[in-house]
Amino acid sequence: MHRLEIDLSDSTRSVWEHLELRLARHPSESDGFFGARILAYALSWAPDLVMGEDLSTPDAPALELRTPTLAIAHWIDIGVPSAKRLNLATRSAERVSVFCHRDPANWLRELSRDRVQAPDRVEVTLLDFRFAEAMGAALGRRGRWSLMRDEEMVQVVTETETHDGILRSATLESLLAG
């Protein structure tokens, strides 16, 4: 179990919050995936946003925001989900986001062969792999970060280091087209 406090300053979304997280890390979770999951949570933060049920549950999002009627309002995935998973997400949620922490070239080629039903409804945030990996590796059992975002620039200050990253966001439809 990891405990992390994040002082979040996201001027892009006008969000300033102090977040207190308790995170379980699945044994198969790489530093990059773990870092991307933490960054996705902070960069998507909203009241009632929660980590998904379990990383080993194939039909559950990594992060989710539910409506008062318990419908999924925002499905957030990490990595390179398959077309089948994206289709499930677009059928299940009003809004779908993917935080990709790998080179997306192979993933986009695969998705262009398979049919994603609503690529215009899938927002993709491309994270720099080294940045996501450094964030996953930086967290011990306890940590405190200051995370600042301004448009595409993200800076995370830990107790001992400062890490800078760049975000690139687009719809899946535009990434597949170009």
What does this structure look like?
This protein is an alpha/beta fold. The protein has one domain: Restriction endonuclease-like alpha-beta roll fold, CATH 3.10.640.10. The chain is 27% helix and 39% strand. It has five helices and ten strands; from the N terminus they run ββαβββαβαβαβββα. The chain has helices at 31-43, 83-92, 105-113, 129-138, 172-177, and strands spanning 2-10, 15-23, 50-51, 63-66, 72-78, 93-100, 122-127, 142-150, 153-157, 162-171. The protein has a ten-stranded mixed sheet with strand order 2-1-8-9-10-7-6-5-4-3. Helix 1 (31-43) crosses helix 4. The longest helix has 13 residues, at 31-43. The radius of gyration is 16 Å and the shape is globular. The model has no long low-confidence stretch (mean pLDDT 93).
Quick structural summary:
The chain has 178 residues and is of the alpha/beta class. Helices cover 27% and strands 39% of the residues.
Topology:
Elements: E1 2-10, E2 15-23, H1 31-43, E3 50-51, E4 63-66, E5 72-78, H2 83-92, E6 93-100, H3 105-113, E7 122-127, H4 129-138, E8 142-150, E9 153-157, E10 162-171, H5 172-177
Helix pairs in contact: 1-4
